[in-house]
Amino acid sequence: MIDEYGRNIDYIRISVTDRCDLRCVYCMPEEGVIPTAHSEILTYDEIVRLAEILAGLGFKKIKLTGGEPMCRLGIEKLIASLKNVGGIKQVTITTNGVTLAKKYEALRESGVDGINISLDTTDRALYAKITRRDMLDNVLKGLEVALAGKDMIPLKINCVPMSREQKLTDVALLAKENDIAVRFIEMMPIGYGSSFDYISRSEVIAKMEEAFGVLTPYEGKALGNGPAEYFTAKGFKGKLGFISAVSHKFCGNCNRIRLTSAGYLKTCLQYETGCDLKSLLRGAGDDNAIADAIISAVGKKPAGHHFGEEAAGGDEKKTMSQIGG
Ligand code: SAM
Ligand code: SF4
C-alpha cells in the first residue's frame, strides 16, 4: 500500500502476546503489566485471516513479536500457517532467546525466515540487572544451538545500548566470529524507555572503531526489512548494524504498521492513532469491511515521530511490551 506520503507500506509487526518471561527495565515494570485476558487476545485463526486480507492489500512481510512470542503456545503453528498465506514472502520472529534452544527445531520446521535475538550484554550480572532475571545462560545456549545448525536460519542480534557498564564490543564480537548481524538500536522514549538516556549511534561507532578499526559501510545485498544501516569491519565474518530512530530519524522511509495482541492496528510507534480490528474481526463485517478499515487507517499514518520534541498530543501510553517494539 502506498500511503499519503508516498511510502510503500508492506510490512507488519504482529504482537502475539503481552506476556513475557523477562522484565527488561526499559520495557516492562518489575511486577509485569496486567496481562490482557486470553479472550481479548487475537486467536491464531484471526491473525491468519488478517494476514490474508493484508496480503491482498500488498503486504509481503510479517514479524512476530510480543511480549515474548515464544511464551505463546504453538507459535510455530502460527508461523507455518502464515507461511502458507499467498503473497506473504517472509515471516520472521523476534525473541529474547530464553527458550530458543528448546524451540529451535520446531521453529526451523515451521519455515521461519529469520530470527532476531535481543541481547543487551554478555555479562551475566549485568544481564540479570537489565532483564531482572538470571537467564543469560539460556539465551547463550539458544544462540549456540541457532549457530550450530547446518542450514542456519538467518540470525540477527539486537542490542539496546543503555548503560556505560555495557561492554558493547563484547556483543559485537558475536558478529566478528559468526556470519550474523549485530544491531545496536537506540533507546526510544516510549513507555519505560523514556526514563533512560539513549546512547547515540555516533558514541557506539566510536567505541567500535576504537576496538575494531574503521567501519566500512556495507553495500551488498539488503539484510532486512528496514532502517538498519550496516557496516563491515576488518576480520569480521558478520556485520554491525545501527537502527538510530532518535539521532537519524528515518520516518520518510517507514514501511511498517503494527498490530497489538489485542487486535489494535497502530500506524506509528509513537502515537495511539490506528484502528480496532478485533471488533471488526469479531463483528458482522466481511473481509472487505476490514480491508477498508486498514486502508483508512494507513491513509492517516502520521508523517513521523517527534521524539525529543515537545509532545503534540495523542502520544502512545502503552509499554513496548504491549506494542511489540
Ligand atoms: N520479547 C521480544 C524481544 O525482546 O525481542 C520481542 C518484543 S521486544 C518489545 C522487541 C524489541 O524491542 C527488543 O529488541 C527490545 O530490546 C526492544 N525495545 C523495547 N523497548 C525499547 C525502547 N524503549 N527503545 C528501543 N528498543 C526497545
Ligand atoms: Fe520482554 Fe522483550 Fe520487553 Fe524484554 S524487551 S521485557 S524480553 S518483551
Structure, explained:
Strands 7-8-9-6-5-4-3-2-1-10-11-12 form a 12-stranded mixed beta sheet. The chain is an alpha/beta fold. α2 (75-83) packs parallel to α3 and α3 packs parallel to α5 (136-148). It has helices spanning 44-56, 75-83, 100-110, 124-131, 136-148, 168-177, 201-212, 277-281, 287-299, 320-323; strands spanning 11-15, 61-65, 90-95, 114-118, 155-159, 181-185, 216-217, 229-232, 239-243, 256-259, 264-266, 274-276. Residues 20, 26-27, 65-66, 68, 94-96, 118, 158, 160, 185, 187-188, 190, 193, 320-321, 324-325 line the site of S-adenosylmethionine. Iron/sulfur cluster binds at residues 20, 22-24, 27-28, 66-68, 96, 118, 320-321.
